[in-house]
Write a structure and sequence with these properties.
The chain contains 13 helices and 9 strands. By secondary structure, the protein is of the alpha/beta class. It comes from Arxiozyma heterogenica.
């Protein structure tokens, strides 16, 4: 009866039900069970490479930075605290891995972060080199001598509170942050863990991409035991330290940060640290929008509207993340040595598979 009143027939209703059932089955077929990182950028995602310099002035400033960094007499402080000190005792020359870190794009990121101010860029990049030494990540991987290792921070990720998995629509590797899966008390090791994971998501950056995406979900997880006397929202001191690290030592690295399920306590925390967040970073924060607006469903956890059925198993995921990252770093360093082991090589060339340089490094007399 209701079908006739609406101008439809029972057959049409049946077709609609059959169509919905088919669509549901098709969606179920698309679900992909996954328990490890996605190694490579899929072919259906493209990266739009932008020009290196907008004008000759920017190029000239880059070359001035290159001249400073390639000076044979350059000595870098061994700690962030002493980077402005004139005392030469706590300084040493650049290591091979530090030269590999000083890519063309790395130098440009520091110039952009200071609005192309040479003096400020030199200070910032020197400070970051000193911090990386002091923090224990200047060797580009534990296999090369980093002291922040996978064994050191493994306990922090046993609950799966940080996950490197997939790429967003702009080809940025994704780092999931899940504060609701916090499994340890506040400590410096939590900061080491975050930096370790930032370095790993950078390992996964594909050719032509220099930024990452953060997907931050504040949802509570009942399967994670509550820690007595410890909030899953970090203290303001830790928050400020993490912000300092991100904004000072990872300039221009954040492409997008999507935040969801934000409780009032997290809002309060965000309000407290808001004054310390620079305007550029604030513009990259997206609150309570569906993740699948920014990430293809084939690269997204089904919890957020994707088709990846991801279940964290520490015994499977953690060794795979460590192994895959190591392979990517080995590839990067092999190509760095192949192309001359000089400062200013392009990340495009270092992360690719082509035989010849696409972007030969500029020289200090290329003006």
């Amino acid at each position: 009866m209701f079908g006739k009143l609406l101008g439809t027939s029972n057959n049409n209703n049946k077709k609609t039900v059959d169509s919905q059932t088919k669509n549901n089955k098709d969606k179920q077929k698309k679900i992909l069970v996954i328990n490890e990182p996605i190694f490579d950028l899929p072919s259906y995602l493209e990266i739009r490479c932008t020009s290196e310099f907008s004008n000759n002035e920017e190029k000239e400033k880059y070359i001035l930075m290159l001249k400073y960094l390639t000076d044979d007499a350059l000595l870098i402080p061994n700690s962030e605290k002493s980077f402005k000190s004139r005392d030469q005792k706590d300084r040493s020359p650049l290591l091979l891995e530090e030269k590999a870190w000083l890519t063309k794009e790395c130098i440009i990121r520091y110039l952009k972060a200071t609005n192309w101010n040479i003096d400020q860029s030199i200070d910032r990049i020197t400070q970051s080199l000193a911090w990386r030494r002091e923090f224990g990540i200047n060797h580009l991987g534990e296999e090369n001598g980093d002291t922040v290792t996978s064994d050191l921070v493994a306990i922090e990720n046993e609950s799966g509170k940080q996950i490197v998995m997939g790429y967003d629509n702009d080809g940025r590797p994704i780092l999931y942050l899940k504060p609701g899966r916090q499994n340890t008390k506040t400590s410096q090791r939590q900061v080491q863990h975050l930096v370790f994971m930032l370095e790993r998501v950078i390992d996964f950056m594909p050719m032509g991409q220099g930024s990452l995406a953060l997907l931050i979900d504040f949802k509570e997880y009942p399967d994670v035991p509550k820690i007595s006397g410890n909030s899953k929202i970090p203290p303001i001191g830790i928050g400020k330290e993490v912000l300092h690290i991100l904004q000072t030592h990872y300039p221009e690295r954040l492409g997008k940060a999507l935040l969801t399920n934000i409780p009032w306590l997290a809002w309060s925390f965000l309000k407290l640290i808001h004054p310390f967040i620079d305007p550029v970073t604030r513009n990259k924060l997206v609150f309570d929008e569906p993740f699948n607006r920014y990430v293809d469903e084939r690269q997204l956890d089904c919890v957020y509207g994707g088709v990846l059925d991801f279940k964290y198993d520490h015994e499977i995921y953690w060794p795979k993340l460590v192994e895959m990252s190591k392979l990517k770093r080995a590839h990067y360093m092999e190509r760095f040595n192949k192309f001359g082991a000089v400062i200013g090589l392009s990340e495009y060339d270092l992360r690719g598979n082509h035989e010849e340089l696409k972007y030969p490094p500029l020289k200090v007399n290329d003006t």
